[in-house]
Structure formats: C-alpha cells, structure tokens
Amino acid sequence: MSLSKLSSTVKVFIIGKTGNGKSSLGNSILGRKEFLVARSMRSTTVHLGEAVGVVNGQQIMILDTPDPVNLNLSDAEIKNEVSRWKSAVEGPYAILLAVRCDVRYTAEEYDIYKRIKTAWGDNSFTNRLVVVFTFGDRQDRDIHEELKTVSWELSSVLADAGNRYVLFNNMARGSEMAAQVEQLLNAIHRLDMKSAVSPITQDQVLILVVLVVIFMTVAVYITLR
Ligand SMILES: Nc1nc2c(ncn2[C@@H]2O[C@H](COP(=O)(O)OP(=O)(O)OP(=O)(O)O)[C@@H](O)[C@H]2O)c(=O)[nH]1
Ligand SMILES: [Mg+2]
Description:
It contains 8 helices and 6 strands; from the N terminus they run E-H-E-E-H-E-H-H-E-H-H-E-H-H.
C-alpha cells in the first residue's frame, strides 16, 4: 500500500562509499538514466548531481553525492562539500545511505559514513537516514536474519537510522523494480518530515551577529552625531 504523498518536492540525498551503487539507485528511483554509472576503482561521481522527476505521483529531487573520502578531501573540505549539499535541504528530505549487501562492511567504510555525519553536524542527519542495501541481486540469505550478526560498525549505522533499511537491486526490471521503488518511497514517507525546517547553522548565527553589530554601530553613530 502506498502512503499519502507530500505536496512539496521530497529531496532524496544518496550518500555512501564509491562504487556502492548510489548513482544507479538515483536512476532506479527516477526510472531513467540520469546519472553516470560505471565500474571503476576511482570515483565516477565527483560533483553533486541533481535531477527531478515524478515517481508514483510524488515530486522527487535526487541529489547524487560523491564519496568525499575517496576524493581525498580533508575534513575541512568535507565540511565545505557537505555544507553545499545541505544548502538544498529546505522542505522535506531524506538521506539514503547506500551500503553493498554482498561485501563486508569495513572500518574504512564506517569512517566515510562518520565523516559525512560529523560534517552534516545535526540530528536531522540520523532522523532522515534510511540504509539502502544495494546489490540485492547478490543476496541469497534472509537479510533480516543476517543483520542480527553484523559488525558493531554496521549495527551502529543501523541504530542511527532507527533500524530503517531496505534491500535494493539496481539490476531489477519491470514489476520487481516498481515494487522495490514503492517500498523505498514508503520508507521515505514514514520519516518524520515535520522537523524538516533546517536548523540555523553556526555560519548563519555569525552573519546575524555581525549584522546586529553593524546596525547598532550605525544607530549609535547617528544618535551621537
Ligand atoms: N549487480 C549489481 N550491480 C550494481 C548494483 N548497483 C550498482 N551496480 C554496479 O556497480 C557499479 C557502480 O555503480 P554506481 O552507481 O556508479 O556507484 P556509485 O556509488 O555512484 O559510485 P561513485 O560515483 O564512484 O561514488 C556499476 O558497475 C553498477 O552497474 C546492483 O544493485 N547490483
Ligand atoms: Mg556515482
């Protein structure tokens, strides 16, 4: 059963390690080849990609992100990069973390996740998080059972996401693809979108303080003249 639609566009950030199928997932959701997909040791996506579409009657904007750690960005650069992504978060949004279900979840991959989460810098990150286990075509065991015995790193990610996860096969076609896209959209609609208002960032507070100081200086100057 599909849940009620949101009247405004839902922004869907797709984050995660390079090669985990982020761009493929964006294409799968939109139902068209919008983002470049490739098998490569280097990052295929190097800049934030955006594309809009209507999926099951819901306006969606996909934000396909690069893996900032694989691009060798420093923590300061990752913070800048993630701030750019965040500038798009007005209105309802979700964060999909692409994790491959067919390979071990490593400490390195956990580090990528942690660095993006730290750079995001507020609770909206975990409130909006859904883990998408990609490469679902390679999953031959019951994922719910398997997840009971995974590494502490992956358990910690799932705990952050309030245990919201879906299995996804980017290679699926036809009704199989339609069913899993619907399941994913339902997971997104179940997120608490009410706290969607983006909190004031430290930078915005600083600008506000500077403006107030300038205003008061001018007011004092005019009064004393
Ligand atoms: N078998 C299988 N292959 C997949 C799946 N999803 C993606 N792939 C393949 O994995 C490779 C990488 O996919 P991309 O979508 O480019 O991965 P990405 O996360 O965007 O990678 P970067 O842009 O480098 O960060 C491509 O060869 C895809 O065809 C899947 O669900 N199953
Ligand atoms: Mg990509």
